[in-house]
Amino acid sequence: MKILYKPFGIIASLIGARIANSLFKVMWSRIDDESPPKPTSADVSFQKAVGAAALEAATMAAIGAAVDRASARTFHHLTGIWPGERPEHKQLKE
């Protein structure tokens, strides 16, 4: 049954990537009037290029984790099966 989660997770990831990209652009527009620089741009300072990349990576990671968690919870709600790993219950020592 967990194989049914794969397409569900892929679609959720694609939607999450679009949301993260849009959010990064909005956040960057509050920092600078120009578009985010590429790391290989010659006319951009090191700090600005690395800062833009760090902000983009943090945004993508945070939104990706939120979307993964929400899609797993939704799948669990719909099917009753948790799609990821679950820790085994620890036995109590007597």
Topology:
Blueprint: H1 5-31, H2 46-79
Helix pairs in contact: 1-2
Key terms:
single chain; 94 residues; mainly alpha; 65% helix; elongated
What would your notes on this structure say?
- The protein has helices at 5-31, 46-79.
- It is elongated and about 55 Å long.
- The chain is mostly helical and 94 residues long.
- The chain starts with a helix and ends in a 15-residue tail after the last helix.
- 65% of the residues lie in helices and 0% in strands.
- The longest helix is centred in the middle third of the chain and has 34 residues, at 46-79.
- The mean pLDDT is 90.
- It contains two helices and no strands.
Proportion of beta-strand residues: under 5%
Query: Strand-and-helix sequence, N→C?
Result: HH
What is the overall silhouette?
elongated
Low-confidence stretches: none
Derived from helix and strand composition plus strand pairing, the structural class reads mainly alpha
Number of helices: 2
Q: Mean pLDDT score, rounded?
A: 90
Helix content range:
55-70%
- Overall number of strands: 0
Radius of gyration: 19 Å
Quote the distance from N terminus to C terminus: 36 Å
Largest sheet: none
Short description:
This protein is mostly helical. About 65% of the residues lie in helices and about 0% in strands.
